[in-house]
Amino acid sequence: MGRQSIITIDGPAGAGKSTAAKRLARAMGFHYLDSGALYRAVAWETLRRRVDVQDSAALSAFFADFKPHIAFDEAGFRVLIDGREVAQELRTPEVSQASSRVAAVPQVRRWVTACLRNLARNRGVVAEGRDMGTVVFPEAEVKFFLTADLATRAARRRDEWQSGQIGIDLEGTMRELATRDRQDETRTVSPLKAPVGAIHIDTTSMTPEEVTSACLAVIRDALARTG
Ligand code: DC
After folding, report:
1. pLDDT band at 73 (very low <50, low <70, confident <90, very high)
2. In terms of C-beta density within 10 A (0-12 exposed, 13-18 middle, 19 or more buried), how is residue 55 classed?
């Protein structure tokens, strides 16, 4: 596996993808790609500019003029719009729901897919999302599919929100995630599903360290086989 290898991590929200992807990217000196952040950026900006994402002409006009700057390396993935970093703004429950809705629009998926492939050109990447191993990088050397039970995923998400001072209760978070899972799994274009050949890891009772070690063991194994 060389410097330009691609590792993908797919799975539902709260399964531990971001933590694992960042840790793996750091361990391997690869760049980290957060595809969800791009869907969230489109959701945030179309909400702000009141663009109707179902109106394809309006969406084309939006994309003609939407040029976020992406700063990414092994430590993080940052989106800057009009020169300003948007981070917490992208993580609110409202933007989470809107991102799942805009992600069902083929034009939006084409924009995000092109953007990710462009960012991955000539470098090693760890890419996380819902269709990384199935659609965006089907050629990836190693594919992971992470899952965890709903209550665990909701508790992780709530803890993240609370550390960012976005207050929300566990039941509300479970409802939000269940709605998003349903939307992400049942949409017609690139629905969330496990890629063929992916290594499945249920992270429900695993620590981030354990998930990272399990993934690294699989990657080392693949490395040994491919030389
Ligand atoms: O990973 P996340 O929670 O930041 O993703 C936000 C939403 O974006 C998610 O509900 C569905 C969508 N998404 C997608 O459809 N495909 C991806 N590869 C990544 C995210």
Report:
1. confident
2. exposed
- 18 CA from centroid of ligand 1 (Å): 11
Q: Note whether 192 and 12 are within 8 A (CB).
A: yes
Instruction: Please indicate, yes or no, whether the overall pTM of this predicted structure exceeds 0.85.
Output: yes
Mean confidence (pLDDT) of the chain: 93
What's 6-226's CATH class? alpha beta
Going from N- to C-terminal start, the domains of the chain cover 6-226
C-beta 13 within 6 A of ligand 1: yes
Q: Ligand 1 mean position to 133 CA, how many Å?
A: 14
- Sign of the C-alpha dihedral computed for residues 59, 61, 63 and 66 taken in this order: negative
Q: What is the pLDDT of residue 159?
A: 81
Using alpha carbons only, give the angle 96, 80, 71 rounded to the nearest 5 degrees.
105
Report H helices in 106-148. 106-120
> Residue 81 — φ and ψ, nearest 5°?
-115, 130
Alpha-carbon span 105 to 168, nearest angstrom: 28
Q: In testing the pocket of ligand 1, which one of 42, 99, 185 has its CB within 8 Å of the most ligand atoms?
A: 99
The torsion region of residue 83 among left (phi > 0), alpha (psi -120 to 50) and beta comes to: left
Q: Which helix (H) or strand (E) holds 64?
A: helix 56-65
* Average of per-residue pLDDT across 202-224: 94
Q: Is the CB of 35 under 6 A from ligand 1?
A: yes
Task: Report which DSSP code applies to 155.
Answer: H
